[in-house]
Amino acid sequence: MLKPFHQEILIEAGCDEAGRGCLAGPVFAAAVILPKDFHHPLLNDSKQVTEEHRYELRPIIEKHAVSYAVGIVDHEEIDAINILKASFKAMHLAIDKLTTAPQLLLIDGNRFTTYPTIPHECIIKGDGIYASIAAASILAKTYRDDYMMQLHDQFPQYNWNSNKGYATLKHRNAIEAHGMSPYHRKSFQCLPSQLELDL
Prior knowledge:
This protein is of the alpha/beta class.
């Protein structure tokens, strides 16, 4: 059972990202402020929810949220500033777009770059503890998956429709066979750094 809030006084926004460990594509983040009484039996950490249920939950979250927003940082900026900073920047971009100003940020994970004027709490595995972080994880994941499905139409050889840019064996094999696409992260080790030599 997810907790509806961390404390009872301040307006809380849950924040989470999707795509941090991918070899290709942007990192997405969402920030969500839920009503204190929001509850849905399917809501959980996006990794624990089926794809069908994630897409069932998204419009429910969007309809009932006090405010929600999604931030995106592309692969080129990920290469320029590193994936951790890019993840935090995507969260900041999402927070920037909230129409209701939160007074406390609940961040999934153990680190965060402080957002100006708003205190935060880092919560390890927070997407499995607090409803607002779980809701953010659902939005970040589904919006990113939609984006990767669009890229798949341009680059079907990488199977982004199924792996969404994650480092599956099929994805790595496709990079080895076809080279890197314009959307691959050059700062990531997309191929084994040392090929075996025939001696």
